[in-house]
Amino acid sequence: MAGSLLLTGLSGLSAFRNALDTTGHNISNATTEGYSRQSVELDARPPQFSGFGYVGVGVETTAVTRAYDEFLATQFRSSSSATAELDSYFDLASQIDNVLTNENIGLSNGLQDFFNAVQAVSDDPTSIPARQALLTEGKAIEGSFATLDQLFADLTSQVNGRLNDTVSDINNLASSIASLNEKIILATGAGGGKIPNDLLDQRDHLVDQLSEKVNVSTNVQSNGAMNIFIGSGQALVFDQQSNSLAIQQTGFDVSAIDVVLQQKSGNIVVTQFMTGGEMGGSLRFRDEVLDPAINTLGQVAVSLSYTMNAQHNNGLDLNGAQGLDFFTDPIITPIKLAGTGALAVSVANTTGLTTSDYTLTATGGNYTITRLSDNSVAAGPTAFATPATVDGLTFDTTGLVNGDSYRIRPTRDAAGDLKLFINDPREIAAAAPVISTVTPLNSGTGDISNVAVSGLLTNQLANATVDSNPITLTFDSANNEYDFSYGPGPTTGSVAYNPSTDNGVSRSITVGGFGTVSFTLTGNPTNADTLVLSDNTGGVGDNRNANLLADLQKALTLTGGTASFQDAYGGIVSDVGRKVQAAEANGLAQRGLLNQTIASKDSISGVNLDEEAANLIRFQQAYQAASQVILTSRAIFDTLLGAFR
Amino acid sequence: MVDRLSTSLAQQQGINTILLQQTALNQTQQQISLGKRILSPSDDPAGAVQLLDLSESLSRLDQFQDNLDYARNRLSLSEGTLQGVTESLQRVRELAVQGFNDSSTAEDKKSIAVEMFQRVDELVALANTRDANGDYLYAGFKAQTEPFSGSAATGSFSYSGDQGVRYLKIGENRSITDGNAGAEVFFDLKDKNGNAESMFATLYGLAADLNTAKPALEETLLTFGGVPADGDTLTVNGIIYEFDTAGNGVTGTNVDIDSTGTVNDAVTKLRTAINNTGGIGVTAGGATNQLLLTSTTEGNNTLSFTDGTAGDITVTRPISIPLYDQLDQLDTALGRILDVRAQLGARLNVLDSQDEINQDLELSIQTTKSQIEDLDMAEAISRFNLQIVALQAAQQAFVKVQNLSLFNLL
Fold it and tell me: Is ipTM over 0.90?
């Protein structure tokens, strides 16, 4: 039947027109991000029965589908999250990496030059230029700490800026996805269940973009809406509604910010749940690289100022006065989170000092101190009246009241706080306060050396007992000891010295209200030989304290007596270096994985122009053929008409 | 293996390859232009930390070398000064020997004393030598207090320095003193009596004695021609020895010398008696009929005798003169200076050997540092060339592939 042939030809014409349109659509969108190749599904129309059998009546277009694989899409998003996280982490961390060993910025050279300057003062304690050079190097150390501290502060604000940007990106994406959800629900309804491919592509592309910001997981409702969960399961988009993220200051650090989920009931802090993507990378950088680096640098600063000050206080300056603090004394200000009491924290020793932060809570008359690095109880519960010394810190807890809560960050601000305290070259305490004299007329060979003073309290030198009443040690051969006496009393005592076994032994005498004088005894004294320890007046050429200061360079004053300043700083360098190296390697691996996923995904969804060109030819030929069918149908009809003419 | 490739991905992948090659090329280029293998710690974290440690060691070594040079300067200066002191002391000794020569007249001695007084002032000036920075070399820690005061004019000398000795670090485990305190070098010289006497005081004493024409002998020799007459006495530093030839006892507390035998017996008994007298400050010796008195203490000893029968006692060397031992003290001073100079020489030797050690160490650290840090240029350049070739190939391949499209043939 000619009519049927015409209709059959028409159906082909229309179907191939659809196919050509779709091919054109594919070609036009060959470079559109997130676009999935579409294809027209054609089915043969239900045939007509005509006694001898079913006669085909042409083709019909049943659907336009997009080439899309849900599994690959999910895999792509998780790879994309991981890659973006590592990229972001690497970007930030490599900024530290590049400066730590920079000869002009890094602390290492500063420390070396500083201690070399101390030795130069030791070479020539009376030289004002040498002392001035030491002050200059001290200033340079202060500058090095300040520069690194500033760099870290800049990175902190960079992290904040990135979090801020990421949060607003996420919020934009969330609201776009929610409105697309709405459109898709509408379109699906209007299309009688037919899927609006391009809207789905748009939404999927937005979710892809979201996955670069933060870890994302999805599920699709029966009405076509996609629900979005970010991080470790926080609902961002639900049906046609989206939630907003925001940032706010952390409770204990004005410079650090938290990510919060805004809800009617209030903001919920979700920082710790935000993994993956740029946000996860920034946060992980802050936790793993930046904060430890800041704290470790602070630990070096605290240790340097504390040990330098302690030794400097034990010396005498060029004016004959007790050494002042060399650097400003490290100040630790506990951050009050709650309560009305008072807490003071000070450094007790540097070997115990860690890079951790601490919390202190006070309830029921007892306080508990928690070390945050391993979340373990460092002290307590202990009554307020009993102060604790924990990890090199003394906690003065006597002012606490119940309900107090503190966060203590002992090393956080130390690097920025470190300043040179003395500013007059004459104030450098190169000399030791006590000098020894071997009485010239001794008949034996008893000698005394390495006289050093410790535990000297500030400004106590002035009223020192030793000042006007030297300590005289008289050898008592019967008891193998030096009997000593000093002061107006006099105060007497003895130190053991057996010439045959004790040669080179170190002994000390503690003088009340002054400090402890230690010294080395050598030689073979005869009975009644005397040694005298007296005030070092006019000893401007004395370099003993300068030598002790110089020795601090290699002294193991940090982390339980295992590290010098340089070692601890080297720790930051290698730690950051290793993390950057790992991030770089993981980033490469992850990127490879991502590329592979993209290739797989694109092999399904991507447009191949050669393929489309071939399709174009194929559908064009089919279209032309269908036209011929119509032509043929007309020819048949004309033939028929001609027969009756 | 994917069996279809989307056109935009194919292009992107082509570009990605080129970007990757460019990054690698850039890294190599930077390495070559800096000559360094490690551009940032992440290139080799362990190596970077090792480099920090090595550069600390190098920096400390440099400082040790500075310290060492400093010590060497001071020790050399000290050595030079003490050489002057030695020459001066030797000259003084010549003068003293010359001055106390029997043939010197009082006038000769006076003129020698004039030079000696000048030498005293010269030595005080030498002992007050300052280094280039104006610090006194021999003041101990009191580097800016003039350590020695006194002059030939005053005749009294004092030391206002202390016993402090500076140590300088010249190696990781090696310190050295850069001088000696003046007390040890010039001042606390023990004399025969165990008292401290300064070198200056010794010289001054010599000069003063020469000035007053006191001869300086530590010994005097008396020869007994026969048995001394009964009641003859010999007075040594106030102790009177009386010869008892008649066996009738002695006057008062005089020491009884039994001289009833031969003259040799009497002299032997006299020697024994003198030696048995405690605290007298001389020892008696000599052979057969001679009595040789030698000073054991410093100061002016006195000796006198009464000779009943003239000629019994012949004084071979002048008597009624002080016995005197300041020349010994001068030798002690010279010995001390030589001793200190020997110490200085030893320390300078130590400095030289430490200098070599430090330089060897520096070389070996430099070598290690270079092995860690420096780039293997040959390897880097061949890598660089390879990367250039690879990049060019990638670029050419990209262009060729981009030209392939079915649309070109439609």
Answer: no
Is residue A340 included in any domain, yes or no?
Answer: yes
Residues A157 and A96 in one domain: yes
Residues A137, A241 within the same domain: yes
Q: Is there a domain that residue A427 lies in? A: no
The pLDDT tens digits of the residues spanning A80-120 come to: 999 999 999 999 998 888 888 777 777 888 899 999 999 99
Considering the domain boundaries, does residue A604 fall inside one? no
Q: Is A609 on the interface with B (CB under 8 A)?
A: yes
**3 state DSSP class of B85:** helix
CB contact (8 A) between residue B7 and residue A122: no
Model confidence pLDDT, tens digit, residues A149-195 = 998 999 999 999 999 999 999 999 999 999 999 999 999 888 888 88
For residue B41, the chain A residues in CB contact (below 8 A) are 97, 100-101, 573-574, 576-577, 580
The pLDDT, as a whole number, for residue B322 is 47
Domain count for chain A = 4
Residue in chain A nearest B3 by alpha carbon:
A603
Residue type, B140: G
Q: In what order do the strands lie in the sheet with A366-371?
A: A335-338, A405-408, A358-363, A366-371, A376-383
Own/partner long-range contacts of A55-62 (Cβ < 8 Å, ≥24 apart): A55/A4, A56/A8, A57/A4, A57/A7, A57/A8, A57/A11, A58/A7, A58/A8, A58/A9, A58/A10, A58/A11, A58/A12, A58/A15, A59/A11, A59/A12, A59/A15, A60/A11, A60/A15, A61/A14, A61/A15, A61/A18
Give residue A90's pLDDT.
92
Query: The CATH number of B55-213+326-359 is which of 2.60.40.1120, 1.20.1330.10, 3.90.550.10, 3.30.60.50?
Result: 1.20.1330.10
What is the identity of the amino acid at A584? Answer: E
| Entry pTM | 0.82
Domain residue limits, chain B: 11-35+377-410, 55-213+326-359, 219-315
The reply to whether A119 touches chain B by the CB within 8 Å rule is yes
Asked if the Cβ–Cβ distance from B66 to A123 is below 8 Å, we say: yes
Q: A227 and A88, same structural domain?
A: yes
Which residues constitute the domain of residue A467? Answer: 433-535
Q: Is residue A570 part of a domain?
A: yes
Residue A229 and residue A137 share a domain: yes
Any A CB within 8 A of B46 CB: yes
Does position B254 have pLDDT exceeding 50, yes or no? Answer: yes
Interchain contact, B405 vs A553, CB within 8 Å: no
The closest alpha carbon to A86, from A571, A577, A579, belongs to A579
Decide if A289 contacts A543 (C-beta within 8 A): no
Catalogue the E-assigned strands of B53-166: 148-149, 158-159
Chain B residues with beta carbon closer than 8 angstroms to that of A436: 163
Say whether pLDDT at A460 is over 60.
no
Query: Residue A49 belongs to what H/E stretch?
Result: strand A48-49
**B183 and A CB contact within 8 Å:** yes
Residue B141 contacts A where some CB pair is shorter than 8 Å: yes
Residue among A108, A575, A579 whose CB faces B55 most closely = A108
Of all residues in chain B, what percent carry a pLDDT higher than 70? 88
Contacts of A543 in chain B (CB under 8 A): 166-168
Q: Are A112 and B56 in contact (CB < 8 Å)?
A: yes
pLDDT computed for residue A43 by the predictor = 92
